[in-house]
From TrEMBL:
Family to which the UniProt record says this protein belongs: Belongs to the TRAFAC class translation factor GTPase superfamily. Classic translation factor GTPase family. EF-Tu/EF-1A subfamily.
Keywords assigned: Cytoplasm, Elongation factor, GTP-binding, Methylation, Nucleotide-binding, Protein biosynthesis
Taxonomy of the source species: Eukaryota, Fungi, Dikarya, Ascomycota, Pezizomycotina
Name of the protein this chain belongs to: Elongation factor 1-alpha
Location relative to the cell: Cytoplasm
Record-annotated GTP-eEF1A C-terminal domain positions: 188-244
Organism: Discina ancilis
GO molecular function, one term: GTPase activity
Domain annotation Tr-type G: ranges: 1-86
Listed Pfam families: GTP-eEF1A_C (PF22594), GTP_EFTU (PF00009), GTP_EFTU_D2 (PF03144)
Gene behind this protein: EF1a
Length: 244
């Protein structure tokens, strides 16, 4: 947590402590442990404690945090950013790659583009596009105009496929490994929905447009199963007629 504009309070230690206390309470409420989060007093405009430690706050001895990986400490915002642990990439799960676009490139052919969400995509693999039901071989995988031996979760890749026209697959389709749990269409699924702001009430038969990854598709609420208290996550009412 970077606490900015400290120069406007003349680098007041009391104000810093007050903000740390208030923010820690909020962080706890949303399910994080304040001990695992560094608090850094900075002035973005003057560059204090951003890259180099500042002499304007002699009371500030630096931040420390404690996570499963162990204890780390530092002084500046850059130190705190460097100490962020990268998330675990789900390479062990079956391939899921929602298509952002499909291009036709002269001399190469059809090139679908998208981000690998789970699994790994490699040249030579047989991929299946759902719900189009098209299966084909991946000729090559590229990222930033460089050939890759594999695309991992988080990578935005383009891959060249054999004998598939641009008309057969489109944005919103999902590519998966045809030999390892390829993606399938679902007749129905259970969803947990939060109503943020809605003019009317929502009941059975309500038909919204669903955006899932890159897909944009109409669906229908078949039945409302239960109403949940958003603070506790416990069921308040079974099979409600309406929610608002």
């Amino acid at each position: 947590v970077a606490i900015n504009k400290m120069d406007t309070t003349k680098w007041s230690e009391d104000r810093f402590k007050e903000i740390v206390k208030e923010t820690s309470n909020f962080i706890k409420k949303v399910g994080f442990n304040p001990k695992s989060i560094p608090f850094v007093p900075i002035s973005g405009f003057n560059g204090d404690n951003m890259i180099d430690s500042s002499s304007n706050c002699p009371w500030y001895k630096g931040w420390d945090k404690e996570t499963k990986a162990g204890k780390t400490s530092g002084k500046t915002l850059l130190d705190a950013i460097d100490a962020i642990e990268p998330p675990h990439r789900p390479t062990d799960k079956p391939l899921r790659l929602p298509l952002q676009d499909v291009y036709k490139i002269g001399g190469i052919g059809t090139v679908p583009v998208g981000r690998v969400e789970t699994g790994v995509i490699k040249p030579g693999m047989l991929v299946t596009f759902a719900p189009a039901g098209v299966t084909t071989e991946v000729k090559s995988v590229e990222m930033h105009h460089e050939q890759l031996t594999e695309g991992l979760p988080g990578d935005n890749v383009g891959f060249n496929v054999k004998n598939v026209s641009v008309k057969e697959i489109r944005r919103g389709n999902v590519a998966g490994d045809s030999k390892n749990d390829p993606p399938k269409a679902a007749e129905s699924f259970n969803a947990q929905v939060i109503l943020m702001n809605h003019p009317g009430q929502v009941g059975n038969g309500y038909a919204p447009v669903l955006d899932c990854h890159t897909a944009h598709i109409a669906c229908k609420f078949a039945e409302l199963l239960e109403k949940i208290d958003r603070r506790t996550g416990k069921s308040v009412e079974a099979t409600p007629k309406f929610i608002k």
